[in-house]
Amino acid sequence: MSETLSEISRHALVTGASRGIGRAIALMLARMGCKVTVNYVRNGAAAAEAVALIEADGGKARAIGADISEPGAVAALVKEARGGFGPIGILVNNAGIARHSSVFENTIEDFDATFATNVRSAFLVTQAVLPDMRDLAFGRLIFLSSTAAQTGGVISAAYAGSKAALLGMMHHYAASLMPWNITANAISPAFIDTDIFAGVTLPPAEKLPLGRMGRADEVAEVARMIVTCGFMTGQTIQVNAGRYMT
Fold first, then answer.
1. How many other CB atoms sit within 10 Å of the CB of residue 204?
2. Does residue 8 lie within any of the structural domains?
3. Torsion angle of C-alpha atoms 10, 14, 18, 19, degrees rounded to 10
4. pLDDT digits 0-9 by tens, 171-182
């Protein structure tokens, strides 16, 4: 753990952490010495498994279920998380959904559900933890976007739009929170081997950049760097094996 992170700041809240990239980041943060609150909305068994993996490795974690698109649920989540492990110094806004549809089949129902889960929730949880970070004079905000924000992606207009919205939100927080030593950055993965691509027709592995899908733990390594680097804010880190270059 970086010397810039004091013991009091080592409580991390990871939303949507029961599986995939969220789980990988939660496990990585625990290995760094963080106490981790594992948020989930429906899959309590998977969240409990993530907690068990952390505890088996000597870490501390608890799972808290909450629909973080609802203000009351977010308030309850943060209150319970703070009561268990103290002020929250690290927030990973990972929770998200991806409803696959062709351009001719996009619906307003899918749009509203996607923005509620992917964007509204990130805003609500971020606002809820900012008082802790202000009082700590320390904070790390990480937003899980997607290369779809730049390229349009292969999932849907709602998904690409929601991931682009997260980048605008991240830039606002980065520009506004510097006086309190709070950084905000985004990670934009592409073609990571998680269930988000279930049902999506992808090119054969040999046709993908580097000839394979990415791994969730490779995204988690980027989160590690963001957490330990206090001199970086307002940045979007692409994790896509060269599919989209900046």
1. 7
2. no
3. -110
4. 999 999 999 999
In a domain, 22, yes or no: yes
Phi and psi of 209, rounded to 5°? Answer: -55, 135
Contacts of residue 184, defined as CB under 8 A and 6 or more positions apart, other chains included, come to 141, 142, 143, 170, 171, 173, 174, 177, 233, 234
Active site residue ranges: 159
Give the confidence band of 38 by pLDDT, cuts at 50, 70, 90. Answer: very high
First to last CA, the chain: 29
Determine contact, residues 41/26, Cβ cutoff 8 Å: no
- Domain contains 144: yes
The CATH number given to whatever domain includes residue 195 is 3.40.50.720
Q: 215: burial class by Cβ within 10 Å (0-12, 13-18, 19+)? A: middle
Rounded-to-integer distance, Cα 123 and Cα 90, Å: 15
Contacts of 134 (CB under 8 A, 6+ apart): 180, 182
pTM, 2 dp: 0.94
